[in-house]
Amino acid sequence: MKPDFRKNMVWLHTYSGLVMGWLLFTIFLTGTLAYFNPEITQWMKPELQKVSNTANMLNRSLDELHARGEGASGWSIYLPNNRTEHWYIQWGEGRRNRTTLSLGSELKQVIEPRESAGGNFFRVFHYTLQLRGYGGRYYSGIAAMFMLVAVFSGIFTHRRFFRDFFTLRISKLQKALTDFHGLIGIVTMPFCIMICATGIMVYVIMYMPFSSEHYVGTERQLSSVLSPGLEKLAPKAPTSVPITNFSEIERKIDATWGEKQIRRVTFEQPFTEAGRIIVDRIKDSTLSRQSDRLVFSAHTGEPLKGYLPASTAAEVRRVFFGLHEAHFADTGLRWLLFLLGLLSSALIASGLTIWLMKRLDKVRKRHVSHFLVERLNIAVIAGLPLAIMAFFLSNRLLPVMLENRAEIEVQVFLWTWLLCFLHSFLRQAKNAWVEQLLATALCCFLLPMIDLIQDSQRLLDAFNQINLPYLIFTVSILIVGACFMKTALWLKGKPVSNKLNKGSDKSSC
Amino acid sequence: MKHKLDVLFRLIAAILGGYLVSIGFSIAFVPVLVWLKLCSQAEAVMVATMLSYIVYFAVIIVSFCRRSPWLLWRDLLLSLCLFSAIYWGMEAL
Questions:
Q1: Residue B90 placed within a domain
Q2: Which residue among A48, A93, A466, A478 is least enclosed by CB atoms within 10 Å?
Q3: How far is A320 from chain B (nearest CA, A)?
Q4: What distances in angstroms separate CA A276 from CA A95, A98, A264, A272, one per listed residue?
Q5: Which of A146, A211, A212 has the most B C-beta neighbours within 10 Å, making it the best mutation to test the interface with B?
Q6: ipTM of the predicted structure?
Q7: Cα gap B65→B76, rounded to integer Å
Q8: For residue A156, is pLDDT > 70?
Q9: Which of residues 52-91 of B touch A (CB under 8 A)?
Q10: What is the number of domains present in chain B?
Q11: % of chain B surpassing 70 pLDDT
């Protein structure tokens, strides 16, 4: 039975990886970028300057809200933190119908950042695949389950851990790739298991709703039983005026949490007697997705009864969710997670490439599936980075005042990717690889140049203010471009043979 | 051909059978947890649903290493029977 078991696991590893490989690569690469969601947004909205004058920010926001949001049923204030300089206020009715205003360092200064999908695009795309109404979240859940199966069966496929770990045969491409696959497989295994399991836990009830529906009700009803919210406030005619000075509350908060711990302040029904203020803590010091909250009365500023503690099961799920989002990670840990994400993408990409190379080596006549896998490998492994670069380029090149600008950016991403598919089918495999890799490298080099030509003041400001997200983004793009360039040129120099099919470590940088 | 059929049966067992068995588990395990006074019903729902993914995973792996698909389907049916027995048994208690 034992040799059989291994054989079965090898089969399972091969085909679970192959079937979902392209989807997994897409999810892993965009999800990895989402680790730097606010930093990427910061780069994509260069109008957001460093908030140099951080004194009295809450009272200044409150003044603006009093001046503009008279009679609204909800106000919120989002403060900048060490990851984003975006300081903005919102007011309006309900959740959808809201006006947003971004504030700047100077007194009464209002800034208008360009409309952009920002880094949030990667966060949303990596689990909805831009198919939210069409089951996108189910596909990513299925992909996560496949990844878990592929990782588990991979343990038995590459079972000689130590031998595999210390072997790297670089003379022959296929051997090198196999060893590389085994090596990073071992390195990223805990990360992959963590990220896939916690990813499933995000929609734990949505994917498996039957128990909940049988005993309690919908997902929402279940979560309101497990983690009860505050009682609902009925909208009423304005009767009272919310506080104008936040200092007193801020002092109380600082006494409980310590200084600079406020992430968001929300006013619910600020113009009624029962109106309340909910203060959310920053997520740096908690593994859970839900940070601490304090509640105050909106017109006296007195502390109110806060949220009831969530039940253990709900808290466990929140911690899983928090682990997936990694808001707790400081810069070093975040880069480590980012690198692990890149390595996992490279793991998937190398696996896909190995599948094809192994088979092309043996067969004399190609099957149509070989052709299909070859083209999809090109379009996904080389095409996705190109589409991402097109997304960044469109952010700089589209007119700033364009309507629906954020949506058009996303469209540029999708159309470029479609073009990559077409291109990979029309060209010879090797040419397609080289051209797409070169195009990506070119975009990487063009991006900082265009940025510099458009407005050289930006770079100077970034140096002066030590705007690290901006500078590091620029440098990373150049490094990635160099990697793609090198891979493309190296591949170009290789003699043509039917097994030539490359795309691996570097193309996922 | 025989190999293809074999793989097909295993695939259906893994994906569909696994899902059914884990649904069975997520429903049958709730009254057990409540009966053992480990947690409230709503919490038990959450715990059972979370654990049911482990059951799913286990079924997928077992599907591809059982000797024949018939044995595999027998096991799946048996476990479904077991879960319904637990569920109805707990209901009767």
A1: no
A2: A466
A3: 11
A4: 16, 18, 14, 9
A5: A211
A6: 0.95
A7: 14
A8: yes
A9: 52-53, 56-57, 60-61, 64-65, 67
A10: 1
A11: 99
